[in-house]
Amino acid sequence: MDQVIFDFLSKYIDLTQQEKAIISEQKFIKSFKKGAILLREGELANECFFILKGCIYSYYLVDGEVKVTEFFTEKQPITPVSYTTKEPSQYYVECLEDCIVSIGSQKRTEEIMKKVPRLAAMGPSVLEDELASQRMKYDNFIKLSPEKRYLNLQDKSPELLERIPQYLIASYLGIKPESLSRIRKRILK
User: Fold this and answer.
1) Domains in the chain, number
2) Which terminus of the chain is more exposed, N or C, with fewer CB under 10 A?
3) What are the pLDDT digits (tens) for 93-143?
């Protein structure tokens, strides 16, 4: 599991063997069953996550209806807004599959930054990448039709279409499951 974390970090910095050993000692790995809720609406997020195995999603409950905002899979970090703002979460974070996750906290982050100060230098780059990714997803949601959003998802993350129930894909695309079925039929023709 260490290699998954090292692969992610290597996009930003080259780690020495000593730094890898320090990181291996620090991480806190936990398993969660499918359906486990990592964060509920109204709770304060005291932890952030890095997915080693599995799929997690975030969603709002609006009048009892699930409105999916994001899917996260292997090698992806999850930093709930509440973790940064220290205000109650407005959404849920839940495991779609059995998951193995590395869990971070403010205290643990400070400790590891003292031991591997070079990790602090990658923070702005990670943040920039995450902001750019979120902006592109937002822009695509606004400017693309549901069919084009589906095709974009199919092109960029085809594995999600195999792993995630269609009703959640439909919610993520901002459409009803019946509309997704019609889109899929049109594409297959």
Assistant:
1) 1
2) C
3) 999 999 999 888 888 878 877 887 777 766 666 667 777 877 887 787 788
68: domain CATH number?
2.60.120.10
Residue from 184, 182, 153, 136 nearest 71 by CA: 153
Q: Cα–chain-centroid distance for residue 92?
A: 12
The answer to whether position 111 is within a domain reads yes
Once rounded to an integer, what is the mean pLDDT over residues 153-175?
Answer: 94
CA angle 95, 81, 34 (to 5 degrees): 5
pLDDT of 124 reads 65
Residue type, 149: R
Domain that holds residue 96: 2-118
Residue 38: enclosing H or E segment and its boundaries? strand 37-39
Q: Cβ of 57: how many Cβ atoms within 10 Å?
A: 22
What is the share, in percent, of the chain residues with pLDDT greater than 70?
94
Strand partners, 78: 49
Distance CA 45, CA 83 (A): 5
Q: How many whole angstroms separate alpha carbon 110 and alpha carbon 133?
A: 26
